[in-house]
DNA sequence: ACTACGACCTCTAGCGGCTAGAGGTTCAAG
DNA sequence: CTTGAACCTCTAGCCGCTAGAGGTCGTAGT
């Protein structure tokens, strides 16, 4: 297997400039090159980039991925640390979900302020007055 | 009411450089100045900045806020458009929540891959192989 | 009236995580 | 051997701020 950057891009779903960017920031190693300086990738890089892409999709920051990749190369005692990183990330995700759920409720209340039933649109005021639907009193 | 930028910052919870940034990108109008070029704000700006802050907290992008502010000054026929913006935003939020929920399940499966029960930590492989917990077969 | 000092000013550059474009070179199919 | 798609490097831009340098202003206390 001897993939050009475009092949690697197609196989991983990571855009070409992003692959080069990952190399630049040290997330992917510098690959072999042809005589004309074109990058050629093997299965290791394919695997690693798939890992990176999936971790990014899961919302891991580049720094966290760097940690995970570092720990992965030291498989003995690192397991607990990998768990810790994942747990920390899980806590963040749960927090995000909670915040977004509150937001969703608020937005639903906003669109429920149906303009057919009231004379004036209140969404602007609702936003200005910190998001409470105020059709009637209050 | 004649607020210096620091007062405005304290009252809205928006940081001073951010206020100046909002002015720079045209989200806030250029305020009155003292003879020594210091900004002085009145109640209109306070109200507008509170609106902006709340909308940002709700996850509206600056462009959307610009739209909302523009529509707010044309209150008659704009109501439906404001609803549309809000509904679009709500759909995006729901989408994010769905994605994050899937992510949470995946992360929970990952941390459930308890390293006391297995000989090798699988988190790395789980991430690499697109997130399926593969303790046993597969 | 003067001084001290905190709050303000402008300007530039940086952050993360890419993305886009210019302008030039290489590879591989026909 | 030619074409043209794919590659190369380099620089700059995106969003939404944030930080710092280096200098000026306003006001409280004396």
From TrEMBL, chains A, B:
A GO molecular-function descriptor: DNA binding
User: Does the record carry Transcription regulation as a key word?
Assistant: yes
SMART domains assigned to the protein according to its UniProt record, in alphabetical order: HTH_MERR
Q: Which InterPro entries match?
A: DNA-bd_dom_put_sf (IPR009061), MerR-type_HTH_dom (IPR000551), MerR_fam (IPR047057), Tscrpt_reg_MerR_DNA-bd (IPR015358)
Signal sequence range: none
Q: What is this protein called?
A: MerR family DNA-binding protein
**Pfam families given in the database record:** MerR, MerR-DNA-bind
Keyword annotations for this protein? DNA-binding, Transcription, Transcription regulation
